[in-house]
Structure formats: structure tokens, C-alpha cells
């Protein structure tokens, strides 16, 4: 299945700031909102960012999202051990007329 | 508290069928679009299908179009996924997910997820 492009892995040390990229096309990221989910091991996903850069209540402001053209990014500042998880971007695709997830990025906190 | 309880997973042979159910509680079910998202063992998330609040409009991933059918019964607070002509690559944990906002029918903003039900397609 088609996916948005994410790096398979990322890493950082406690306190550091990292970014995870998500690359798409004009039919998805370029024309629709991007959402970001965090999935802890063995758990269901949890929404971190909606509508490109909005945080649901309860999500720490260490998490932020941005979008430019056909790419989006998730930034995590003040990295903590509990941030170790898989992170996914997702957007609606107008050509496919359906949702399309990124392949996921496994974040390791060293 | 909002709960989504999936059921119906299991082992099925290639070419067979399964019907997944997701029973919802503690919210006005008919007000929210619902979706199914799957995750193959050790793999990433894949959006599978979505259904509007009324059930009149449905959406499918290309990988399941023509084989899977999503539906809902608002009187029973339940969303279904009928899966036919199953293939080995359909093996996954299937999650149902609730849209966070009640005013849209195309939704990727999910605030609640079920625990998932595992469908295994193998001979």
C-alpha cells in the first residue's frame, strides 16, 4: 500500500530536541491536514497533533507539528525516556479518496 | 468512559471471510464518523476504511476495495467490517477508531481506539 515517507528510525538523548519528517505529495499533505500519532509498545495509537500543528488537551507542549508544501514534521523537545515509541503521520489523499499513513518512525531515547 | 470493543477476529483460510464488530459505549454513537485501521505483525499502521455518521458514505483503501465492506448500526452503537476474499497480507490486528469531532464525515483525527482484534489468514 502507498505510504507517506518517514525515516524508519530516529534517536536522541534526554533533553535533546529531535524532528521526524513526513514527505508526501500534492494530493495528500499538499492539500490536506496532517495528523501525528504516538504508539507505545503493545498499545493502541494516541493522537499527538491534529490539523498540522494543533495539540489536543493533555499533550505536552514539548510536542509540536509543522507543515510546508508537501512535507510535515513532528518536533519533540526536552526528550524523555517515556517518549520512546513509534510515531506515525497520516493525511487524507484526494486521489485515493482515503487515509494514508507514513511507514512509522521508531524513536529511541539513548 | 468511552469504550470501543472489537470482536470477530480469528484464523481463516485464504479466500475466506470474517466479520469484525466494534461495540461502542458512553458517547452518542450516531454523531461520530468511525474508521478501521490495521497493523500487520511488526509493521506500521494502515488506514483501511471509514464510514460517515449516518452510514451513507463509505471510504476504502485501495488494498481492500471490493473485498471489504464497512457498515454501522446506529441503533446498536456498532460498526462492522465485513472482510471477504481474504489474503495472507490481510493478517493484522484491526482497530476501530472514533473520530474526535462530531461535524465531519472524513476523519483522521481519532480520540479513542479499541484494543484491537487479530485476524489471521493462513492455510
Describe this structure in words.
Chain A is mainly beta. Helices cover 0% and strands 45% of the residues of chain A. In chain A, strands 1, 3, 4, 7, 8 and 9 form a six-stranded mixed sheet that branches. In chain A, strands 2-6-5 form a three-stranded antiparallel sheet, with no helix packed on it. In chain A, a hairpin with a 4-residue loop joins strand 7 and strand 8. Chain B has 123 residues and is mostly beta strands. Chain B has strands at residues 3-7, 10-12, 18-25, 34-39, 45-51, 58-60, 68-73, 78-83, 92-99, 110-113, 117-121. In chain B, a hairpin with a 4-residue loop joins strand 7 and strand 8 (78-83). Chain B starts with a strand and ends with a strand. Chain A binds chain B through residues 1-3, 33, 35, 37, 39, 44-45, 47, 50-51, 56, 86, 88, 90-92, 96-104, and chain B through 35, 37, 44-47, 50, 59-63, 95, 100, 106, 108-111, 113-116.
Average pLDDT of chain A, rounded to a whole number, is 95
Label the overall shape of chain B: globular
Biggest sheet overview of chain B = 7 strands, mixed
Which class best fits the helix and strand makeup of chain A?
Answer: mainly beta
Assembly type of the chains comes to heterodimer
What level of helicity do the residues of chain A show? Answer: under 10%
Strand content of chain B: over 45%
Number of helices of chain B: 0
Mean pLDDT of chain B: 96
Query: What is the alpha-carbon Rg of chain B in Å?
Result: 13 Å
Strand portion of chain A: over 45%
Q: Could you tell me the radius of gyration of chain A in angstroms?
A: 13 Å
Query: What is the strand tally of chain B?
Result: 11
